[in-house]
Write a structure and sequence with these properties.
The protein has about 80 residues and is of the alpha+beta class. Helix content is about 30%, strand content about 30%. It has helices at about 25-35, 65-75, and strands at about 15-20, 40-45, 50-55, 75-79. The protein has a four-stranded antiparallel beta sheet. Strand 2 (about 40-45) and strand 3 form a beta hairpin. The radius of gyration is 14 Å and the shape is globular.
Length: about 80
């Protein structure tokens, strides 16, 4: 039987950044949007409640510093 609900495995590297400066869930969406513009970002998930963002990325196309710059460019701090 074919499993139609098999979860897709994301390749690449994963990093979790703790954040400050978030005031609402729209802030989390702004961070996700900024990160998605970075070439090499495969998936991003930001939690306002946890004040953190999880990013899966291709390390051959981007790095931690570029991801931090994108977050800071959106007006938030990486701690």
């Amino acid at each position: 039987m074919l499993n139609l609900f098999k979860k897709k495995t994301i390749q690449g590297e994963k990093v979790v950044f703790k954040l400050s400066g978030l005031h609402c869930s729209s802030c989390a969406m702004s961070i996700d949007n900024a990160l998605e513009e970075v070439d090499g970002v495969l998936e991003t998930s930001t939690s306002y409640a946890k004040a953190e963002t999880k990013v899966h990325f291709d390390p051959q196309k981007t790095n931690h510093d570029e991801l931090k710059r994108a977050i800071q460019g959106a007006g938030y701090q990486v701690i």
